[in-house]
């Protein structure tokens, strides 16, 4: 049996073809298609979709010798895990408790339940699958997509063989990672130390964010440009949870690059970012008109632009995350701050 893995840009719109499976990309869900980024997509990540609908794999194939599995470039935890489940299914393996718990775990991480407590990094005697994924990314840097995929698939296969049943993905068996334990602990400890320094460079403010039923909740806004910590968002959520009253929410504005910005609130938060993404897109359009640098191409399905600000409208995100255009935004940090102030006045 030959399984070829191909990588396309994130957000690519693909069409179903026989003996081809698309995971976490393609902009569709159905036979051979397991994406969740399109409008009206199920409230599940790609790994959950594959686990819950293996029949869509069986219906996509008409022979048993050669298949193509497509996911996006720079594959994340969901893309890597979903493609491994597809590989398992194509090899005729039945899903069991391990596969089920993997899908549930990846779904929680994809929704944003990736909270890490910085203080625990120095004394903890366990690591999670999410942390190990980031360790692998760092270990392979600079990495090729196929190298990361092969490493991850091999790790999950070995983990399945070692447990042969359900596993606590928040507390990986030391027997599996024993040879790398010291290296992993060093990586996490150093990353937590970087977070402590990043936190000193965070801009802090506090404003009332909308919480539904015409109510608002005081929300701490953390604003940082290019944090050095790879797990910054996860450390930050853990830091906020342990340092702030339960009645104070949080929002992070993280500039990954000078023109790439992600705004988010935790999925367990009572506040919402609904309407902010649309407001930012309007400002983006106006500024690009002035600069004469329009985004070209076919509109992203469900949007009025080929590369818009993503406003969190997918049911899985439920307006808890906003992401700038993939080619980058022309808005700067001051524009974002002013946009939030204007949005809060009218939302």
Short description:
This protein has 347 residues and is α/β, with parallel strands linked by helices. Helices cover 39% and strands 17% of the residues.
What does this structure look like?
- The chain is an alpha/beta fold and 347 residues long.
- The chain has two domains: 2-163, no CATH class; 201-346, Diaminopimelate Epimerase, Chain A, domain 1 (Roll).
- Helices cover 39% and strands 17% of the residues.
- The protein contains eleven helices and ten strands.
- It has helices spanning 46-52, 55-58, 77-90, 97-111, 129-140, 145-163, 174-177, 181-200, 232-243, 276-291, 333-346, and strands at residues 2-8, 20-23, 29-30, 33-34, 66-72, 203-212, 215-225, 249-257, 260-264, 321-323.
- The strands form two sheets. It has a five-stranded mixed sheet with strand order 1-5-2-4-3. Strands 6-7-8-9-10 form a five-stranded mixed sheet, covered by helices on one side.
- Strand 7, helix 9 (232-243) and strand 8 (249-257) form a beta-alpha-beta unit.
- Helix 3 packs across helix 6.
- It is globular.
- The N and C termini lie far apart (55 Å).
- The model has no long low-confidence stretch (mean pLDDT 92).
């Amino acid at each position: 049996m030959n399984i070829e893995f191909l990588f396309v840009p994130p957000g690519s719109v693909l069409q179903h073809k026989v003996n081809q499976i698309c995971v976490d990309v393609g902009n569709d869900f159905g036979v051979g298609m397991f994406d969740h980024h399109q409008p009206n997509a199920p409230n599940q990540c790609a790994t959950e979709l594959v686990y819950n609908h293996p029949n869509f794999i069986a219906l996509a194939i008409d022979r048993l010798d050669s298949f193509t599995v497509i996911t996006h470039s720079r594959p994340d935890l969901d893309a890597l895990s979903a493609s491994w489940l597809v590989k398992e299914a194509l090899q005729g393996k039945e899903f069991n408790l391990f596969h089920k718990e993997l899908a549930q775990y990846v779904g929680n991480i994809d929704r944003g339940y990736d909270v890490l407590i910085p203080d625990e990094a120095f004394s903890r005697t366990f690591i999670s699958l999410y942390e190990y994924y980031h360790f692998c990314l760092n270990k392979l840097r600079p990495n090729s997509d196929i190298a990361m995929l092969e490493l991850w698939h091999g790790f999950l296969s070995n983990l399945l063989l070692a447990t042969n049943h359900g596993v606590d993905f928040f507390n990986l068996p030391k027997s599996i990672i024993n040879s790398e334990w010291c290296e992993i602990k060093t990586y996490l400890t150093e990353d937590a130390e970087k977070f402590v320094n990043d936190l000193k460079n965070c801009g802090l403010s506090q404003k009332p964010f909308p919480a539904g039923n015409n109510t608002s909740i005081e929300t701490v806004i953390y604003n940082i440009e290019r944090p050095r910590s790879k797990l910054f968002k996860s450390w930050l959520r853990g830091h906020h949870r342990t340092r702030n009253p339960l009645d104070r929410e949080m929002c992070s504005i993280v500039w990954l690059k000078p023109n790439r910005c992600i705004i988010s609130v935790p999925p367990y938060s009572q506040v919402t970012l609904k309407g902010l993404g649309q407001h930012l897109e309007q400002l983006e359009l106006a500024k690009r008109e002035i600069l004469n640098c329009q985004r070209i191409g076919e509109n992203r399905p469900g949007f009025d632009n080929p590369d818009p600000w993503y406003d969190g409208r997918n049911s899985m995100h439920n307006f808890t995350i906003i992401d700038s255009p993939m080619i980058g935004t022309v808005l700067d940090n001051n524009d974002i701050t002013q946009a939030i102030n204007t949005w809060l006045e009218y939302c």
